[in-house]
Every structure is written in C-alpha cells, then in structure tokens.
UniProtKB/TrEMBL annotation:
Name listed for the protein in its UniProt record: TetR family transcriptional regulator
Biological processes per GO annotation: negative regulation of DNA-templated transcription
Organism: Tumebacillus permanentifrigoris
InterPro entries from the UniProt entry: DNA-bd_HTH_TetR-type_CS, Homeodomain-like_sf, HTH-type_TetR-like_transc_reg, HTH_TetR, KstR2_TetR_C, Tet_transcr_reg_TetR-rel_C_sf
Gene3D superfamilies: Homeodomain-like (1.10.10.60), Tetracycline Repressor, domain 2 (1.10.357.10)
SUPFAM superfamilies with a match to the protein in the record: Homeodomain-like (SSF46689), Tetracyclin repressor-like, C-terminal domain (SSF48498)
Source species, domain of life: Bacteria
Length: 195
C-alpha cells in the first residue's frame, strides 16, 4: 500500500514539475495537457486522474506554491524578533523564494491575472500569506514603531513590491542579485525614498 501511495506522490510530483515548466515557457493559454504529459513522461490520462482540467492543475500549482512561501516565512518568524526585523525577514524570504523558484514566480505573477475566476481563486490563496504580513504590520502599529497605516494596504504593498520587482528581473533575464534587491526594498519599505 505504501508503494502505491509513493508512486502516486511521485507521479504527482512529476506532473507538478512538468506543469511548472510548461506553464512558465508557454503561458497558461498556449500550454496543453498533452504538453504537460509529454514533459512528465506520463500518459495524459494519468494527469486527468489527478486533475480534472488544466485550470484545476494551474490552481493546484498556485496553491501549493503560495503555501510553501507562507510556511517558509511563518516558520522563521519568532516572537523575539521586533516588528521591523519581521518585515525584513518577510522581504528577504520572499525574494529568496522567488529566486529559488523562478519558474513558479513567473507563473504566479504573470498568469494569475488571467480569467476572472482565476483571479478570484488567486486572491483567496494569497490571502493567508497577506494575513501574515498584515499581522506583523499591526504588531508594529500597536507597538508604536510603524506609522498608523492600513495593515491590509501595507501587506499588499509589501507583497506586491517584492513580487513585481522580482518578476521584472526574472522576465528581463537579468542577474537576480537577492542581496541588492533586498537592500533596495528594505530601504524603500522601512525608510522611504526621501533622504
């Protein structure tokens, strides 16, 4: 029984990676289940056994990726960190995640703004990550170290700033210098542009 479960998990992982590759290369609209099956070296029926449609597979990828990002950040946020240190950690981890999972970053940020249904699902999925950022912003406001801004606006701005800056570099095929990107975004997020 464990062998079957391992086989299924292994096939799902093959499909997962193949879908990331194909969606990042061709985009959602041009990618086909045949392309994904060929890349995963599995029968198309195997994909349909796990996922009812290309849309469902895409949403699964986004959900899994966002969950990996959230769990990775959340596991490093400790109570002994100040709100400022937590924001720095969130920025650094998000930049690092997008550098490590470049193709996923491209899919997440380029394709998630497609069909209206996909946008709604994306917003639901990203909500748990945004809530994590909002909680830190609220903590900083309550401690009197952050300005009295909307935690929701600040959370989406911090996520969006790091995400779009990363995407700009990744799509431009430039050198993804995580340290420089982190340094710039930390300056902008925590001290602003004005001297």
């Amino acid at each position: 029984m464990m062998k079957v479960m391992f086989l299924r998990k292994s096939k799902t992982n093959l499909i997962f990676q193949a879908a990331i590759d194909v969606f990042s290369e061709k985009g959602f609209d041009k990618a086909t289940m045949d392309d994904i099956a060929a890349r995963a070296n599995v029968a198309k029926g195997t994909i349909y056994y796990h996922f009812k449609s290309k849309e469902e597979l895409f949403l699964f990828l986004v959900e899994e990726g966002v969950e990996m990002l959230r769990e990775g950040v959340e596991s490093k946020l400790t109570e002994d960190l100040t709100p400022r240190e937590k924001i720095e950690l969130i920025l650094r981890e998000q930049i690092s995640f997008f550098g490590q999972y470049r193709d996923f970053c491209v899919i997440l940020l380029r394709e998630s703004w497609g069909a209206e249904d996909r946008q709604l699902e994306f917003r639901k999925m990203i909500r748990s990550y945004m809530a994590l950022i909002e909680k830190v912003v609220q903590e900083g406001k309550d401690a009197g170290v952050f300005h009295d801004v909307s935690a929701e606006n600040a959370g989406s701005a911090l996520f969006g700033m790091a995400a779009i800056a990363a995407l700009h570099i990744l799509l431009g095929k430039g050198d993804y210098d995580e340290d420089k990107l982190f340094s710039d975004l930390k300056q902008i997020a925590l001290s602003g542009l004005l001297k």
